[in-house]
Fold each of these.
Amino acid sequence: MKKYKDPPIVEALCEFQFIPGQPWDITIPGIIYEKIKNQFPEKKQQMGIGLGIKPREAQLESRIEMLPPRMQFLRHDKKALIQIGLDLLVVNHLKPYPHWENFKPMILENFKIYLWVAKPRGIRRVGLRYINRIDFESAEIELESYFKFYPKLVSDLPQVYETFIAKVEIPYEEQRDKLILSLTTAVPERPGMISIILDLDYAMVKPEAVPLDDIETWIEKAHTNLENAFEACITDKCRELFGEEGGNNGCE
Amino acid sequence: MVVSKKFHSEYISFSIYKENTKNYHKLPLIYICSIQKLKQIDEETSIIAQEENKLKLLEELYILNNETKVKTFLKRNPFLIDILLSAENEIREVLEENISSLELELHKDPEEGFEKLFLVVKTTNASPEKLIGLLEKIDDEWYLNLDYETRKNFNIMIE
């Protein structure tokens, strides 16, 4: 598998949605925190955003309302975090991404803690996702020079466009799994730059198709499929941006 | 009534829009945002993707003057994004029908030499005295409660 000096991964995450084995208990996030606080000591509440509507005079008025929070437990450097919500566990790692050999144990360790505390019946959905951000120090690029997966316009239309989103969902393993692949423009960090996000999300979408005790095999397979998909989406010119050897690729 | 992701529907949003088409100018801009976008933000578990989605939502709440500069500034100062999402509501609570538009623009502080984001509230023809009173109310009830780092990078201006 190819290795890169400056891999484009800005975030890797593994999201588990569970089928509960017992009613949700609001003390669950607290018990999990007790078990992980040495590694993830900082607490943050991710407020949910919803739309509130209230009657006002002769009409209705809407306002943004905050919904029940999802707890985030962050490492001191804020580069890794565990999110706990209603029947939900998410393990996130931001840039710089550690090798898969380090990220995988982090996923499995926290998965085991969640199982021990929340005692779910099964997994409704699990997704392993890699978000790659590729920055170009240029005001204009030719997508086909860098990507093999990109939006293609018919020749009758102007060929220069500003923002775009290309998204496909590809079934794997007889539709048990799905690869959600998207390429979109993103807000660049500096004016005059172009930023493109290549987002690869491999998920098991058939509830309980993977048993709780077989998750390690599934994430390993998911990771292999993501690596292959990443390499299939980019050209050699794109690989040159990351500098081959010495690092990890867009999923590794 | 809170429409959460559990029981909201596009239908509700559409009904409200229909009810208010005659008074459209009075509606909070949030009406223009689809409930789907809020749902996307709420359900997103990626830190990076959620930030991108929130930036897109801001585009619908505010007019962005020199859009690229404002967005790249927010990208460098992501702690302002949530503040701006709640600011729209706070300002509308106080200024109500006096608002004609809410705009975001960057100003370079000549003394400090750094850029600062301004939320510019363009108003209808209310008297300057009344507007100053309302701005003081926003300051007391909301803006001055923000932490120092936020206030250093962000201010509100009424025109």
Amino acid sequence: MNTRTRVLLEESVLPPLVALVVALVAGDLLIMAYGQAPGVVWRALLEGTWGNSYGFGQVLYKATTLACTGLAVAVGLRAGLFNIGAEGQLAAGGFGAGLVGLMLPAGTPALIAVPLCVLAALAAGGAVGSVPGILRARFGAHEVIVTIMLNFIVLALLNYFVSAKLHVPETLHTPEIHAGAVARLSGTFDAFHGSAANWTIVIVLLAAAFVWGFLFRTRAGYELRAVGLQSDAAEYAGIRAGRVWFSAMAMSGALAGLGGINFVLGYKNYYEDGFTGGAGFLGIAVALIGRNNPVGVLLAALFFATLSQGGLAINAMVPKQMVEVLQGIVILAVATAVPEVRRLLRSAMSRRKAAP
Amino acid sequence: MNGAAPAIRLTAIDKYFGAVHANRSASLVVQEREIHALVGENGAGKSTLMKILSGMTPADGGTVEVGGRDVTGWTTAEAIAAGVGMVHQHFMLVPTLTVAENVVLGREPVSAGTFDRARAERDVERLCEQSGLAVPAGRLVADLSVGEAQRVEILKLLYRGARVLLLDEPTAVLSPPEVAELWKVLRRLRDGGATIVLITHKLDEVMAVSEHVTVMRMGETVANMATSDTSPEKIAKAMVGRDVDLAVRQGGGAAKLAGTPGAVALDVRHLVVRGARIEKAVDDVSFSIAPGEILGIAGVEGNGQTELLEAIAGLRGVTSGTITLGGADITHRGVHNRGEAGLSHIPEDRHRRGLILDYTMAENLILGQQHHYTNNGILDRHNIIDHARRRIVEYDIRPTDPSLPARALSGGNQQKIVIARELSRAFTVLLAAQPTRGVDVGAIEFIHAELRKAREEGKAVLLVSAELKEVLTLSDRIAVMYGGRFVAMFPRSDASEEVIGPFMTGAARGQVA
């Protein structure tokens, strides 16, 4: 096995797999504690998600939002910044998209309305994300503190705008948007009938491809990763960390904001207070499991979406909170598994080499 | 030696770190009451072998015997209890505690349930007297010189009753007088019954102080000789596995031409630079370097060399003074701008600054010049790989796969990446900080030749090195830095270790030309 394959295996593939196995074992124990047979519950979980078209559509829908927040956190981490603010950025993106959708006259062609709404989502999320970037670059304020606090501020502000200015009476959402709706996948593929899966997923796949290209094929990405890996060496190379922090956080916020399209334009056609439902925070787990790699993030988003949707499918047998416990276990396992796996593998390989 | 069991006997030690076979059936026998030198190139497995001996890491195979007792796989605590202790390259002292407090740390004398400071100081003072290690017991460690701090490390071991002392490159941070002092101490300890293993890659140290020498190469112990029966040439040959031109290492090969008269490539005037802890880490330093000249800065580490070079490179702000590169004032320019203006920089710490260890060799070979390998913001991968392939061949970097992360390379090859990158760019002035630190003999030869070539091509080189020999060997002029100032400046012909030594310790002060 050459070094590159080994590094890829050790650092990218094995930790999530180990985490998965650990979560499965822990899940078995939990299920048995409820007096159920693990095999039956797991099968129900799979059938309720990947096994039928509605469930699969819902998985894709949930994964779309998670992919956005996961990409957001991943870009931040690549620059050495821990963006805890994806929740607020996601909400801001959804609000921005909704606002633009409401302002556009009904009947604006989708070809104009959708890109405008997408731009608004990116801009709103990016604006929220760039605040911690600027504060870090100018004043050295730690982005973790700033992004956590900004979540409260942004969510409270949006709550105010919606409830004071824009809401439909008796609800916490805006009036229906008549321009910029993203079509459901079920309109084209009967298979997804009834699910919320919509074409936003294509926009997000493009975004993931863009992030990959940006990180690994552009000079800006090279410099961003350099700052994240070794800021002293980046400084030596003439890279200004402040600029990188600012642009990385703006980009991170914009990616999270993009996720707002999925709910606001792809599903409900209005902005609703609290639509994020923790997807921003779950994005941290998605990025961790996805090893900050866009491809990994997409896979991790599918995984967490499956768990989340699967929780509904097995609700009759075990409480759906069980899957939340499982999510927690997966995250813990990955966080511990990375160095552990490497060490185990190394000593196993050296023993094999010493043996012959 | 007498018929008793040797103090140390390591037999057929094997140790792997992942795919790296750090020790290959290595063996070492050290008799009681001897100073034994363990030499080898960087990465030869010396430190690993000593870590196994001192219980810091277990061996994957082989046996460890101390005083005839099989102690294979013991822990550091057991090793210390048995009187085996190691002085590490990087000191492990608490700067805010006094010498006595550091020495007794972990075994504090106690009276009535509280720390008995007076007894601790008495004990340590007595220990100082017995061992000949002079350190003021009541002084804060933060206020000690490097040489004194090292003595505290040795005292710590003696306080715990160590009879076998392992010293890992103890002279790396010392000035020549401090080195001489250390040799005295070690001889005295040996005469008092201690057994000492000295890890080094400096052959003159082997010759000066050891009775026996064991040579390691690529994890194996390839030779074991009585020092009196061998020569530096023989040891070097055993280390590298071929003949080595020692002239490069040991003076000789003196300067041919001393710069283009009149022309100035780099000019520094009245430079004052703030340090991490002191106001004036660099205190009113002025000098200039001509094209085709190497100016070497000699001095004990920590006297402002780092700050001076960082200020010139643009990594550290300047309090006052000017820096002029080829006639242009670059005092307030950014790092990138200085690079474009013709400044190249081999930084002193390749792991922190010079390389991004998780980047591939190819990516590292463009670090700082990424602008030149980009088309409209997109990395020119073809060009980057091509550049890497050529540098790898030219500079004989191994392994040769440019997509390997820098982390996977040995220290010497990592340094070659830095050297290759900085010497292959367009530049007029080169800052070379510790260019051969932690690099093996073969690579040192190579790097020295490259620096000389740069000079012959008309580049101006500012060289900072903790190795006085290196400065003497390569430089056309030598400045001595002490306490942030240039305290002396010599042409090559007037400089020698004896002349420069007193200036390095601040014992002498001269007029800077």
